[in-house]
Each structure stands twice: as structure tokens, then as C-alpha cells.
Amino acid sequence: MINVKDEVYAALCTVTDNVTDFYPRDWEKDLAIQYMEEDNKVMEYTDMKEQKAYCRYRIDIWAKKSTSAAAVAVDQAIAALGLKRIQCMDVEDPSGLKHKQMRYEMVIDVKTKQVYHSY
Predict the structure, then answer these.
(1) What domains, with CATH codes, occur in the chain?
(2) What predicted TM-score, i.e. pTM, was given to this entire model?
């Protein structure tokens, strides 16, 4: 298993300092980002060793007026890590805040840490 969660967190912190891996608790700030590792599994296993790992992350953005600028900034920060965006959608939120949900995935060679986009 390979862990990129710290790298995802650091990349998101370049967008805002209100980043968490649990439901946001600080709604006073205009922008809140939640990230979650939805999947981290062996993709290729040979000779009793993990060769490639598949990772998928979900990133939720909440803002008072618009999530557009934050979504562009998140996309740039996360893509720089080698993750590929597979979904981006607006989510209805009963709080009245704007809510965007994005999903990213990648395959990593565990030994070399090379990222593959064809899976």
C-alpha cells in the first residue's frame, strides 16, 4: 500500500487553510474543503509483492457564493500530484452553501512511485 494522503492534504492547503479529512467544522470562513481517500488497493500483485496501487480521492468544496475558482485551484493542485480528475459535479446542499464534489484517481508503481494514467 502506498500513502499519498499527506501529499493531497498539502496540495489542498495551497488553496485554503480550511482543509480537513472530516466534515468541516469552521463555517465562518468562506471556503471549506474536505478530502477523503475512498479507495487504496492493490492493482497488480506478483511474486507475493504489491507492484501497483490504485488510489481514489473525493474532494468536497463548500463556499458561500461560488465554488468555481476553488475548483479550478483544487484541480491544478491535485493534478500536479499525478491524480486524474474523473468527476466534477455540483451537489445540492440544504444549508444554502454552494457545494462541489470532485473525484480523482491514479495508479502508482509502488517501487518507483511512477504514476500511471491508463487503467
Answers:
(1) 5-116 (3.30.2000.10)
(2) 0.87
